[in-house]
Amino acid sequence: MTFLEKRDLAARMAELARTLAGPRNLNEVLAGVASAALELIPGVDTAGVLLIGKEHTFETVPKDASLTNELHRLQMQFDEGPCVQAALGDLIVRTDDFREETRWPQYAPACVQIGVLSGLSFKLYTSDRTAGALNLFGFQPNIWRGEAETIGAILAAHAAAAILASQEGQQLEAALSTRDRIGQAKGIVMERYKVDDVQAFEMLRQISQDSNTKLVEVAQRVIDTRD
Q1: Among 147, 189, 190, 117, which residue's Cα sits nearest to residue 40?
Q2: Cα 60 from Cα 44, distance rounded (Å)
Q3: Which domain holds residue 146?
Q4: Where is the ANTAR domain (predicted)?
Q5: 160 and 142 belong to one structural domain
Q6: Are residues 81 and 104 in the same domain?
Q7: Which residue in 12, 110, 214, 225 has the most C-beta neighbors within 10 A?
Q8: DSSP structure class, residue 99
């Protein structure tokens, strides 16, 4: 990579970082990462993010990437392939030529039949609910150079950060909703039984414990029966 190419890459990465930091939803960020991979990494003909959920569910971002979605679907069908391996295990999974690939006896021939000969996958994020990988595919074999893995890893870091931020935002939203429902239920109990807020909370907590029911569910029942 020449000096000018490195400078252009640095400028593009800085622009990408600013863009991803903006107020966009998760799917927009992940679609932007896939688009950047197509632009920045030579030999990438299609790219996308695979998100794997519970019970073998999966989602491809961007949603309109039909070829990438098919490549992901085949991996979930065969339960093998670089995207699944990266999402659930290895940090980087590279295939220089699917015609010579022996790790995935069902998936590799399917890729060749479609016309995809190379793949590069980067682990994004794993929790007890979701696994993710940034996946790059090429129509030509033996196209990946060292800078491909470097740039891909940087893009994957952006995507992983977006997923983490989204999860934290969802957790915060859920926590605020829970707090508000418990507070509302406390107010109803205080008014109905003429007790203070400490006593009201203790009443809710005791019912939760006695019935082996989550406190927020007890609170919701109080709210639903306030009339």
Answers
A1: 147
A2: 17
A3: 3-168
A4: 162-223
A5: yes
A6: yes
A7: 110
A8: G
